[in-house]
Amino acid sequence: MTTAQEPGGTLLSAADLHIAFPGRRGAPTARAVDGVDLDIRAGEIVALVGESGCGKTTLARSLLGLVPPTSGRVTFAGEPLDYAGRALKAYRKRVQLVLQDPSGSLNPRHTVYDAVAEGLRIHGYAGDERAAVAEALSRAGLRPPERFFLRYPHELSGGQRQRVVIAGALVLEPELIVADEPVASLDASVRGEILALLLRLREELGLSALVVTHDLGLAWNIADRVAVMYLGRIVETGTVEEVLTSPRHPYTQALLSVLPEAPGDPVVLSGEPPDPSRIPGGCRFHVRCQVLASGEAQRAGVADHCRKVDLPLLSGGGETQVACHWAVAGGTP
User: Fold this and answer.
1) Cis preceding linkage at 7, omega within 30
2) Which of 60, 126, 283, 287 has the smallest CB count inside 10 Å?
3) What is the pTM for the complete model shown?
4) What sections of the protein cross the membrane (predicted)?
């Protein structure tokens, strides 16, 4: 498999990305992605983490070319993403999607062979289709692959169905996969196997991955770097060890506090879940922030900033960054 960049070079990049959806019947516009910079390097696994409704799936779909941005741009291997039909088809061969629900993404009337071969047929593959399907299934851990050719999805376990979905992505030899909650629908006993598979594919193929998840525990087990998203923006980013062992943003701290192994009591966030049609002024997290509610931000002298002063976008690179007045002022967990 060939890659567009040397290991460590930027493969996929979003710059000042905005995606807005007009409201129905006079409802306000939803700013689902409201200014995001994000880089993914060749051979790197990045976890994009946040609650439902934070914009992470919309961002991922835009990086795949499925949702054109309202403004900003996406580049791949240094070239701006072209949304014209032929160029976009070529791009989607290089960047593949793995969905969270294998039962929903596999046609129950198609055999495993047809499900994996579908991408080859769409892209007019001229090689040995049977050999390519067998290799993809084998790489995904379904061996011997011929034993699975004529099976249907209902004849497989949940873990096997997810491996078929991964094989369907691998058969086109992509350089990057976008995995949206790749183990959310699987039993705990199978989750580790699928995560180990993704890590092995990175080692064997140099494959890059963006893993979209609400689960910081999953990010810890698989990612090199993590980007925490809240209400359309990335609010904290850095290496997985730095962000998850020393979180600086109160939102990241709250997400981590509910993990079973976390010390102390879970942080229960007050207020409503994020609403992209009603983004508050100042720090967009301030209406639910436990640090502001507890008086810590007031004692640090930044409470007014939290309520009134917007924060700059974080850059998309690998350095550790946080969008939080309290953390920048020296606040500590």
Assistant:
1) no
2) 126
3) 0.94
4) none
**Residue from 225, 184, 256 nearest 321 by CA:** 225
Place of tokens 């067998």: 134
Q: Quote the tokens at residue 16.
A: 């000042």
Continuous H helices in 262-309:
290-294, 296-299, 303-308
The angle subtended at Cα 287 by Cα 282 and Cα 290, nearest 5°, is 115
H-assigned helices in 144-269: 158-170, 188-205, 216-222, 240-245, 250-257
Residues of the chain with CATH 3.40.50.300: 10-23+30-228
Per-residue buried b or exposed e for 133-171, using 16+ beta carbons within 10 Å of the residue's own CB: bbbbbbbbbbeebeebbebebeebebbbbbbbbbbbbbb
**Mean pLDDT confidence for 285-302:** 95
What is the phi/psi pair of residue 321, to 5°?
Answer: -145, 155
Euclidean distance between CA atoms 276 and 90, whole angstroms:
32
* CATH class of segment(s) 10-23+30-228: alpha beta
Give the phi and the psi of residue 233 in degrees, each rounded to 5: -130, 155
pLDDT > 50? residue 1: no
Three-class SS of 105-149: HCCCCCCHHHHHHHHHHHCCCCCCHHHHHHHHHHHCCCCCHHHHC
C-alpha distances in Å from residue 20, one per residue of 33, 79, 222, 312: 7, 24, 31, 19
